[in-house]
């Protein structure tokens, strides 16, 4: 397994080798640029866009048949796991992975987490909140959001639903508490679960920075995580700058 890396008071967690039981590629194969077959997610259902108001817990059109026909309100539809892929999953000591991928360079604009069963790789639940910056003027926020989301038509949803980072954390703690992944009385560490990130930036850099800006004490459950880039390096013996 990947050795634990200590990053000052923060650290990335080890994970049992890889999600696939396939052996690492031999050196010759790696030199020729061949890659092992990864888990493949397939869906036979027609794709439709997700209702972003629904992901924020603020959709008011759940009784509107046309709205339900146009927008997806069942996130598990987009993340099915094929039987062949599930057979390749190695046993894990953890029960759940909390896949985190923050958005926002100046301040956090989105806080999305997907909860995955570590044994079956099945989608369990998700938490997604748009985050309103606390140290930026309203004019700067408007320009920032227009540049970030305007071309996707998401800026209206952001302005309608974004809440301060402190409120996001309160709702997130209610969410992980509801799944019995965390209890404040147990020292604030996650229970049988771990964050998964693509790199250390999200939890080593951005969350501590945002907590400082928002004048919030950094929750201790953010102090350890699994870095997919470390897993990739350990398994394939080569570094990767991005993971698709």
From TrEMBL:
The keyword Magnesium does not apply. Keywords: Exonuclease, Hydrolase, Nuclease. It holds the Pfam family RNase_T. It comes from the Eukaryota. GO terms for molecular function: 3'-5'-RNA exonuclease activity; nucleic acid binding. Gene3D superfamilies: Ribonuclease H-like superfamily/Ribonuclease H (3.30.420.10). InterPro entries: 3-5_Exoribonuclease, ERI-1_3'hExo-like, Ribonucl_H, RNaseH-like_sf, RNaseH_sf. CDD domains: ERI-1_3'hExo_like (cd06133). Residues 100-242 form the Exonuclease domain. This is Exonuclease domain-containing protein. It comes from Aegilops tauschii subsp. strangulata (Goatgrass).
């Amino acid at each position: 397994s990947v050795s634990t890396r200590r990053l000052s008071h923060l650290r990335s967690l080890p994970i049992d080798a890889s999600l696939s039981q396939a052996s690492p590629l031999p050196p010759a194969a790696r030199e020729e640029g061949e890659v092992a077959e990864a888990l493949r997610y397939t869906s036979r259902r027609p794709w439709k866009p997700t209702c972003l108001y629904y992901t924020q817990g603020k959709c008011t059109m759940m009784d509107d048949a046309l709205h339900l026909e146009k927008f997806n309100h069942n996130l598990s539809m987009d993340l099915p796991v094929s039987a062949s892929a599930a057979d390749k999953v190695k046993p894990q000591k953890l029960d759940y992975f909390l896949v985190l991928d923050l958005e926002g360079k100046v301040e956090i604009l989105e806080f999305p987490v997907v909860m995955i069963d570590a044994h079956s790789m099945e989608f369990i639940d998700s938490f997604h909140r748009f985050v309103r910056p606390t140290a930026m003027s309203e004019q700067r926020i408007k320009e920032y959001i227009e540049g970030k989301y305007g071309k996707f038509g998401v800026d209206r949803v952001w302005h309608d639903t974004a809440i301060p980072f402190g409120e996001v954390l309160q709702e997130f703690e209610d969410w992980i508490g509801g799944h019995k992944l965390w209890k404040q009385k147990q020292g604030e560490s996650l229970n049988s679960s771990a964050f998964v990130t693509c790199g250390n930036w999200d939890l080593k850099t951005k969350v501590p920075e945002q907590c400082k800006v928002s004048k919030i004490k950094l929750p201790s459950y953010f102090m350890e995580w699994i870095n997919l880039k470390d897993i990739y390096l350990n398994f394939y013996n080569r570094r990767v700058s991005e993971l698709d």
